[in-house]
Design brief:
Largest sheet: 5 strands, mixed
Low-confidence stretches: 205-227
CATH architecture of the largest domain: 3-Layer(aba) Sandwich
Distance between the termini: 21 Å
Order of helices and strands: HHEEEHEEEEHHHHHHHHHH
Strand order of the largest sheet: 1-2-3-4-7
Shape: globular
CATH topology of the largest domain: Trna Endonuclease, Chain: A, domain 1
């Protein structure tokens, strides 16, 4: 999925939004397990949480319909079982706009698919946690303008640095629902200044590069520019992930492709290529994709 959505949603869910987690699982709390699953290939699940009843919850976040999802989830279940000795409860959290076509069952194995739009945003807006409020933007709303106003009203009471961080997360997710203009309009009404350099997203490397002035914010919180710096940060992050994936799976032969990969200037194609690395059986498959992409 698009990296900015993936990373933003992971960050929000890692903070364990109480209301949202209860809607998904029936529990309001859980202990986040920050792990990497060892295997011949490099497997990094989106989220693994140990619930209060000691069950392991595995969540994968999808903004597109992935035809390999059933295979991926099945493999994840085996790897998680091998590490914890417990079969996980698995959920694919679908946050895309188009109806998904993913299969979730083979034989006796199955996992859950939950469309975030099936959640009524009003439930999340009742929460005191800012993570729940931001996630409400992706849920079902009868009046999105009112929902955005309520979200920002809740965020406005937070300390300056924390508030700005959540507003940036909100802006990232707004693009997923084509709501960037609406959110920007409401943000401009707030008497705040947003500086991306103070954001946790920036400090953790999600917004990379020297982007001083990307979100300078004038007296009324005006967001300037067209996010060129943000785009380049996303692109560099994808390139680093692709380079690591090629090295781990195909060694020096895979790394030889990086000069061609760097010529790709769209995030969608880079994301598609990164996902292809996971399933490709040979470098030739990757070369064919690159030949069609340039």
């Amino acid at each position: 999925m698009h990296q900015k959505y993936d990373l933003t949603l992971k960050k929000l869910l890692k903070d364990i939004p109480a209301k949202f987690l209860k809607i998904l699982t029936g529990f309001e709390t859980g202990k986040f397990l920050d792990i990497q699953l060892p295997n011949i290939q490099y497997w990094l699940p989106d989220l693994i949480i140990e619930l209060p009843d000691s069950n392991i919850l595995h969540i994968e976040i999808q903004s597109t319909s992935d035809g390999t999802m059933l295979m991926r989830m099945y493999l994840y279940s085996a790897l998680i079982f091998s590490q914890y000795g417990r079969m996980p409860r698995q959920i694919v959290l679908y946050v895309g706009n188009k109806p998904h076509k993913m299969k979730n069952k083979i034989g006796t194995y199955s996992y859950e698919i939950k469309d975030i739009r099936d959640i009524n945003c009003s439930e999340l807006l009742q929460s005191d946690k800012p993570e729940d409020a931001v996630l409400a933007l992706l849920c079902n709303s009868d009046n999105m303008d009112a929902t955005i106003s309520i979200i920002l009203e809740k965020l406005s009471t937070l300390p300056t640095k924390t508030r700005n961080d959540y507003i940036l997360k909100l802006l990232n997710l707004a693009d997923l629902r084509k709501l960037t203009d609406k959110v920007n309009k409401e943000v401009k009404k707030m008497p705040i200044t947003i500086d991306v350099r103070e954001s946790t997203l920036f400090q953790e490397g999600l917004i990379a590069g020297k982007q001083e002035g990307l979100f300078m914010g004038k007296q009324e919180g005006l967001l300037v520019g067209k996010q060129e710096g943000l785009f380049e940060g996303m692109r560099q992050g994808l390139l680093e992930g692709i380079e690591l994936g090629l090295e781990l799976k195909f060694g020096l032969t895979g790394l030889d492709l990086m000069n061609i990969v760097r010529a790709i200037n769209t995030l969608d194609k880079l994301e598609e290529f990164k996902n292809l690395i996971k399933t490709a059986g040979s470098v030739d498959t990757l070369k064919e994709f690159l030949a069609k992409s340039l």
